[in-house]
Amino acid sequence: MLPGSCDGVDRRNFLRVGSIAGLSLAEAMRFEHLCAAESKRNDINCIFLFVLGGMPQQDMWDLKPDAPAEIRGDFRPIDTAVPGIQVSDVLPKISRVTDKFSILRSMTHGDSDHGRGFHIMMTGRKAGAGDFNTGPKNNNQHPSVGSMVARLGETGALPPYISVPNYLNSGGPSFLGPSYGPFVIEADPAAPEFAVRDIALPVGVTGDRSQRRRAALREINRFERRVEEVSRQERAFDVFYKKAYNLMTSAAAKRAFDISRESDKVRDEYGMTSAGQCCLLARRLVEAGCRFVSIENGHWDTHRKNTYSLRELLCPSFDQAVPALLNDLEQRGLLEKTLVVVTTEFGRTPRINELKGRDHWPNAFSILMAGAGLKVGQTVGATDKQAGFVTDRPITPADMAATILRTLGIDHTKIMHTPLGRPVRLVDGGNPVTELFA
Question: Cα–Cα–Cα angle for 241, 284, 298, nearest 5°?
């Protein structure tokens, strides 16, 4: 039985909302309240686009045209909106918005396993012993960055951490507790029948009927308080059911999740793909006050037919979605208040394999950061002639996490405590990438 729950009354079934690691939203809000937000509210939000499988740095962001054919691959560099910066010819639309982001070309870590790579990039902390590729996705040994933001920021009408179109591997809260896990939409906004479950009253429950249910619930609670002494925390439990109820009945929340309110023109600009519509929904959510939206875009594990996969299957939707997101945020005056991170778990091998693919490579890879007042239109770091090893300004996942937290107004050196009282630093050994801060 969870703390604050009452024997004999299944109140969870009244307002079970969302998918926050198996808890109802009301229970999650209650636990969140018990740990008061400890940092100053900041108006910067984050859209965290995770390209699952490993973006090939030498085919997208860090081309080596003078390398041998088995290294450089089939793509050629093209000029961009920023003189001196080139990207791949498979990214023509992104090439026109390089003035809106920085390319971090010197990301590096030591894990070539997908699951362990997810963990280090989602949390900034290297994974310990264990299998990170099977079992529940909430396998965090350290809180994800999204959970850190949810724990240390205030909340509004929307959950502070939302994940779309599913729960990202290692996107959980670890010792921070289930209430700081993501509200998972668990649906692809590009699907014609897309709808966010559990933010509306059940079918057949009208507003009047729900009011009667609330009145009945209050009577049951009064009876419970008469037959047993309830602690202050337990008496406050109904407050969190009320907040969950308010989310379900909030016109603003419904509008934020209702992507069909967007015009066909805007939806087409993002692309009627999973990548495009997830980015559009993320814009709607940060616009409505969500602090951290994570997006999974996959699967980029190009062990075979790398050129075909990138040119025909993966990059077209990505190349449309990312510029549309950045341009839309800017036009709405939101880009200065929104940090956009495009990341991945590792890069790909410098040498093309016998299946015409590239394998896992954590030694050097590239990510993007945009918005939130960061210094953009630049590259940070460099790699060798094969894009295989960092030669200048190595940047670690811990540095990335520290950069995100600093941008969102959160102290990355903060010490948190596990339920057993063990002190744990949010980001251990990482420092913000100073080149991004003007």
Answer: 100
> What structural domains does the chain harbor?
44-201+263-436 (3.40.720.10)
Q: How many other CB atoms sit within 10 Å of the CB of residue 129?
A: 5
Write out pLDDT tens, residues 37-51. Answer: 333 446 899 999 999
Single-letter code of the amino acid located at 269: E
More confident residue, 196 or 109: 109
SS3 of residue 378 by DSSP: strand
Question: What single string gives the DSSP state of each residue in 241-310?
Answer: HHHHHHHHH-HHHHHHH-GGGS-HHHHHHH-SSHHHHHHHHHHHHHHTT-SEEEEEE-----SS-HHHII
Q: Which helix (H) or strand (E) holds 323?
A: helix 315-331
Place of tokens 């094969």: 386
- Residues 396 and 363: their CA atoms lie apart, in Å, by 10
List 319's β-bridge partners, or say none: none
- Residue 52, phi-psi category: left (phi > 0), alpha (psi -120 to 50), beta (remainder): beta
* Listed residue (68, 12, 2, 43) closest to 410, CA to CA: 43
Give the integer Cα–Cα distance in Å for 88 and 86.
Answer: 7
DSSP secondary structure letters along 120-154: HHHHSS---SS-SSSS-S---SS--HHHHHHHHS-
pLDDT tens digits for range 268-291: 999 999 999 999 999 999 999 999
* Euclidean distance between CA atoms 350 and 71, whole angstroms: 5
Q: Are 67 and 75 in contact (CB under 8 A)?
A: no
- Rounded Cα gap, residues 324 and 315, in angstroms: 14
229's CB contacts (< 8 A; 6+ apart) are none
Question: Do strands 101-107 and 365-371 pair parallel, antiparallel, or not at all (unpaired)?
Answer: antiparallel
Find the distance separating the first CA and the last CA of the chain, reported in whole Å.
51
